[in-house]
Amino acid sequence: MTQPVDQGEKKHPIYKMADDDGQFRRKASSFRSFVSPDPTAEFPAEKDRYALYINWGCPWAHRTNIVRSLKGLEAIIQLVVMDFTLTPEGWIFNGNDGSMDKDPLYGFTKLSELYYKANPDYEGRFTVPVLWDKKKETIVNNESSEIIRMFYTAFDHLLPESRREASHPAGGYFPENLRQEIEEMNEWVYDKINNGVYKTGFATTQEAYLSNVIPLFESLDRLEKHLEDRQTKYLFGNHITEADIRLYTTLIRFDVAYYTIFKCNYKMIRYDYPHLHRWLRVLYWEENDDTKGVFMKTTYFESYKNGYSRALRNNIVPYGPEFDIMPLRK
Ligand SMILES: N[C@@H](CCC(=O)N[C@@H](CS)C(=O)NCC(=O)O)C(=O)O
């Protein structure tokens, strides 16, 4: 049984997401180094050298988990899973809901300990995902958009040929010929959708809420039209690219969590966006050479409903919707 929210704890500074004007502004990530295939690099790609710290709830961490599996990096990069409930002490290990009992590398119980090991003077937020170097004992990078790009290519020489970017039928997850289009889409999808749902959900004034929820739905309309016009299976053609991975982690949480918990309730993906809904179900349900079944395997609906409810310090988890995801064919 869940405990009622402690009203004192509700005011803990870790839960203060919005600035004084009611708007949530995501802070830039602090660790921005890159793993490289070059053996003389500061962070060379090696087997068993790196660990990826995540939880099942976070969409940014989810991106990195998807790419780790799509690329077949499971035996090369260790996965470390924490609980998906944000506590006053930040992300913790507690053995619940898929979390490991404690940090397998150092026996830590909190993610903050890992950040302080990397930098005792660290002052930012303790976010997932984190890519950790076990040899240098430091954080390589804590920015998901950069971690996924490293995963596309940096470890390719350690992988069978079929998993290398050069063998990817579309020319990679971030192919040369689509880079500009993907970057352009990333920019507005990040601001209005991936981060837009957070800006909507964490807003503490009506003005701040409206200034984010309206562009969010305008952008979903724009994506719907993009798919309708192109009639492609994925966002840019018939193979998965980075644009699909980045959008998936937000849309798979949309109807079950953001719609109710973050008040993104103007429309629902399943009833109001037929093309996006089809695209989402293909990624989730279809086990083909592109998806490799990875999207379903890395999706944990209960963590979205529970994690976001608790993040807003309200332990009541919404009852619906009736299905976490609709079947591919009715
Ligand atoms: N820019 C980061 C954002 C990561 C992020 O904000 N993660 C959230 C979880 S979804 C987090 O760890 N929040 C903890 C906190 O802010 O205290 C990325 O994309 O990697």
TrEMBL record:
Molecular function (Gene Ontology), one example: glutathione transferase activity
GO cellular component, one term: cytoplasm
The GST C-terminal domain, residue ranges: 175-300
Pfam families in UniProt: GST_C_2, GST_N_2
Coiled-coil stretches: none
Binding site for glutathione: W91, R125, F126, T127, V128, E143, S144
Residues of the signal peptide: none
Gene3D superfamilies (UniProt xref): 1.20.1050.10, Glutaredoxin (3.40.30.10)
Catalytic site positions: C58, Y198
Protein name in the entry: GST C-terminal domain-containing protein
